[in-house]
Design a protein that fits this description.
By secondary structure, the protein is mainly beta. Helix content is 7%, strand content 46%. It is built from five helices and 54 strands. The N and C termini lie far apart (109 Å).
Length: 655
């Protein structure tokens, strides 16, 4: 039964198990085609290093009749009887093949399993209770966990170590212990990298248990560069070894290592680095101190003591030598610095976009503009923006320039005349921030008057409030902890806020702004005009779209849905509107009822006014506990004559 499951696991790897039928499996059996066998110059392990490197060759030999396998005609679908009761799932194995298999996450969540590898060639390595074994595509532990080490299956066999290394095949048969091998690593195509007892390394194939011969020359050290290429070390020097093609490149490098690109490798010689391909051809002589890995655009950078160059590893075009080259940005542009310490730009075609002519240069921002600076005769170093044709768009006349936001605003610093003392008599210059647009027009003027002359910094954000750009203003010494806010209309860059505010909040339903200054709230309309000056200690969203406010004097009132004062702040307490009415009080025995226009529906001469949630009525009590009742429309329903008399008297006193 064990052999049956193992064989079926292999068949499921070779094709989609659900697609097999008995007839198809039988037809596979009848085919007799030559099989490619990797054949190498063979050599017994030796303690002496080889005198010359040898080629690895591939030859084709007739297929030998395999041992009789009574399970070879089994229907692969029988492997999927789902004995575990767990539904199989579609996944990809380590070779990128689609397989229908037991979900490995079920095992990875089990504390007994220290390691669960992905499937490869129909089996997955597991480490259970500290030892390795294999499961098939059905999730059955088909090779019991018993090995100290295990490699993945490699063309029908897996290298495992119990005491010594041996092969186990896909029907569970173990080979004799492999001779002279102390460590092993499966590569591909039936080849494995091994280390012998004499500390030399070489390649073996899946027949090593019978031949006891490696299929390559032996080396002091071997590293796997990719599945078809090795780095080999002999007599303290490294070369490149491509399996199956040609001879080993001359071993004269101090080190070989991957570059991040297949078939391209870094080579080191005399503490310098260059490039070589899988055939051992030197593409870039070792002349740099460092070579970066391949970037997203397919470039490597060579960095020397006084120069840097780029190489396109797709076509091996090489850039000019520069003092420095930055990484490419998302647009495919890189900053270059020439021997005169001037900066410019090149693109990923290695063509110059901006000639090196600037003292500083930044990354390309919004509107394809580049922040740069130049030493202007008689003026010193000035900053501005150029486009990708080198044309000045924002003139180079500022002390510094900030980042352009998405709408086209930015902060610049310039030298301006400032009022430097409290009496306004000492007039001098200072460096002050201002906000401009991409056309150079001033949007927010610099602060030039005492005591804040030159001490206010602006920050343009990308935050939008009702199509308005949020601009921060802060004192330089408080920039990190305290800022005020201004609004600039996005469509025409008109400044809406009459002054910087501590806080600005848009009202989502009704187009006006709440603003706060020195702890007090007010409102602005969308043109920047005050609807209510900053005078309220608190603002609450009450009900029916009205805002309950508490004035600085402690009295309560209401703002209407447009942000205007509708109920003047004259009440000691004020309730929420319900069906257009609110209970209010002006003090002891001064309770009453108002509507949204501040009309006194119940005059303020009563002891108490209550709202009854069940009946939706208003109960009014005078100081003698006489009871009057109004319905939810504010109409009197009980003791109405008496209530009307009280109203008339209250109005007469008021008039």
């Amino acid at each position: 039964m064990k052999q049956l499951c193992l064989a079926i696991g292999l068949l499921a790897y070779l094709g989609n198990a659900n697609a097999f039928s008995s007839a198809q499996l039988a037809s596979l059996e009848t085919k007799s085609e030559p099989v490619k066998i990797l054949k190498f110059n063979q050599q017994q392990p030796t303690t002496q290093a080889p005198q010359q490197t040898e080629a690895i060759k591939i030859v084709v030999e007739p297929t030998k009749t395999p041992p009789s396998d009574p399970t070879k005609n089994a229907n692969a679908v029988t492997c999927f009887n789902n004995k575990s009761g767990v539904s199989l799932s579609q996944t990809k194995d380590l070779d990128g093949r689609d397989v229908l298999a037991f979900p490995l996450e079920r095992l990875r969540n089990n504390v007994r399993y220290g390691f669960v590898d992905n499937y490869k060639q129909g089996f997955a390595r597991i480490k259970k209770d500290g030892v390795f074994g294999f499961i098939n595509l059905c999730g059955e532990e088909i090779i019991a966990s018993q090995f100290e080490k295990a490699e993945n299956f490699n063309e029908g066999k897996a290298l495992v170590r119990r005491v010594g290394w041996l092969f186990i095949d896909n029907i569970g048969v173990e080979s004799e212990e492999l001779q002279n091998i102390v460590d092993a690593k499966a590569i591909s195509k039936g080849l494995s990298l091994v280390k012998f007892k004499n500390n030399q390394m070489g390649l073996i194939d899946n027949n090593y248990d019978k031949t006891n011969k490696p299929v390559s020359a032996l080396y002091d050290e071997i590293i796997v560069l990719n599945e078809t290429t090795l780095g080999v070390k002999v007599n303290a020097k490294w070369g490149v070894f491509k399996i199956g093609e040609g001879a080993v490149a001359e071993a004269n490098f101090d080190l070989v290592e991957p570059s991040g690109k297949d078939n391209l490798f870094k080579i080191y010689q005399n503490k310098k680095v260059g490039l070589v391909n899988a055939n051992g051809e030197i593409l870039w002589k070792p002349e740099f101190n460092v070579m970066t890995d391949v970037d997203n655009f397919g470039f490597m950078k060579g960095i020397g003591e006084s120069k840097q160059q780029l190489i396109n590893i797709n076509d091996f075009r090489v850039s000019k030598a520069y003092k420095q080259i930055s990484d490419f940005d998302q647009r495919g542009l890189a900053i270059i610095q020439n021997e005169n310490n001037l900066y410019g730009l090149i693109n990923k075609d290695l063509k110059t976009v901006l000639e090196p002519q600037f003292n500083t240069i930044g990354t390309v921002g919004e509107f394809d503009l580049v922040p740069v600076s130049k030493d202007i005769v008689g003026k010193g170093i000035k900053h501005g923006f150029v486009n990708l044709k080198g044309i000045e768009v924002i003139p180079l006349e500022y002390e510094s320039v900030g980042k352009i936001n998405k709408k086209g605003l930015l902060v610049v610093k310039e030298v301006v005349s400032c009022n430097l003392d409290e009496k306004g008599k000492k007039i001098g210059t200072c460096k002050a921030d201002k906000v401009i647009d991409v056309n150079g027009s001033t949007v927010i003027l610099p602060i030039t008057k005492y005591p804040d002359a030159g001490k206010i910094s602006y920050t343009v954000t990308d935050s939008m409030v009702y199509n308005c750009i949020m601009v921060k203003a802060s004192k330089n010494e408080e920039k990190s902890k305290y800022a005020k806010f201004m609004l600039v209309r996005g469509e025409d860059f008109k400044v809406l806020t009459p002054e910087p505010f501590d806080f600005v909040q848009a009202v989502s339903k009704h187009q006006f702004f709440f603003v706060r200054q020195n702890g007090l709230w007010g409102t602005l309309d969308t043109t920047g005009k005050y609807l209510a000056k900053c005078q309220f200690k608190t603002v609450l969203m009450a009900s029916e779209d009205y805002y309950l406010v508490q004035h600085d004097n402690g009295k309560y009132g209401y703002l209407d849905p447009r942000g205007k004062v509708q109920v003047s702040p004259e009440y000691e307490s004020l309730g929420y509107f319900k069906n257009g009415f609110a209970i209010a009080s002006k003090g002891e025995n001064q309770a009453g009822l108002i509507n949204k226009f501040n009309a006194k529906i119940v005059p303020f001469v009563f002891k108490e006014v209550k709202y009854k949630d069940v009946t939706k009525e208003y109960e009014v009590l005078d100081k003698d506990n006489n009871r009057y009742v109004l319905n939810q429309q504010g109409e009197c329903t009980q003791n109405c004559k008496e209530l009307e008399a009280i109203r008339i008297k209250a109005n007469a006193v008021k008039n």
